[in-house]
From TrEMBL:
CDD domains xref list: biotinyl_domain
BP GO annotations: fatty acid biosynthetic process
Official protein name in the record: Biotin carboxyl carrier protein of acetyl-CoA carboxylase
NCBIfam families reported for this sequence: BCCP
Residue ranges of every copy of the Lipoyl-binding domain listed in the record: 85-161
Molecular-function annotations in GO: acetyl-CoA carboxylase activity
Alphabetic keyword roster: Biotin, Fatty acid biosynthesis, Fatty acid metabolism, Lipid biosynthesis, Lipid metabolism
């Protein structure tokens, strides 16, 4: 491998790392073909920092408890759309488009009834437009992404009930 091609590969990998950061992705994998038996396989990934737990502050125990004390209602846990039974998740990493072309109507809107196999959106990956079909018939309850947004594998896209 020549020094020039090595420097080009390093620049290519740095550009991939920049894409990872700019689009807030956690992983990117690319195969670069140079010739018949010459290629470069690159996988760039990063781990997101774990959330830091706030220190628990304990109040001193009261001296006497009142006879009847109402329990505070428990806070409802935040709903994770990916865990919803009607979630449609991304089958790939790419850019999601809700319309077949700029300026046209969206494939679906919230409240629309869809049939199994109907196109919900397009995900562009590696310059290829991939139509994402409805996995089942139902009603579109939520659209969880914006047009032109980067998506990762497994990311929730819509909720169909």
């Amino acid at each position: 491998m020549t020094k020039t091609s090595h420097e080009a590969d390093v620049a290519f990998i740095q550009a991939l790392a920049e894409l990872l950061r700019e689009h807030d992705l956690t992983e990117l994998q690319v195969k670069r073909e140079y010739g018949e038996d010459d290629s470069l396989d690159v996988r760039v990934s990063r781990s997101l920092p774990a959330p830091v737990a706030a220190p628990v502050m304990h109040a001193p125990a009261p001296l006497a408890m009142p006879a009847m004390q109402a329990a505070a209602p428990a806070a409802a846990p935040a709903e994770d759309p990916a865990q919803h039974p009607g979630a449609v998740t991304s089958p790939m990493v790419g850019t999601a488009y809700l319309q077949p072309e700029p300026g046209s109507d969206s494939f679906v809107k919230v409240g629309d009834t869809v049939t199994e196999g109907q196109t919900l959106l397009i995900i562009e990956a590696m310059k290829t437009m991939n139509h994402i079909p409805a996995p089942r018939a139902g009603t579109v309850r939520r659209i969880l992404i914006e047009d032109g947004a980067p998506v990762e594998y497994g990311a929730p896209l819509m909720i169909i009930e």
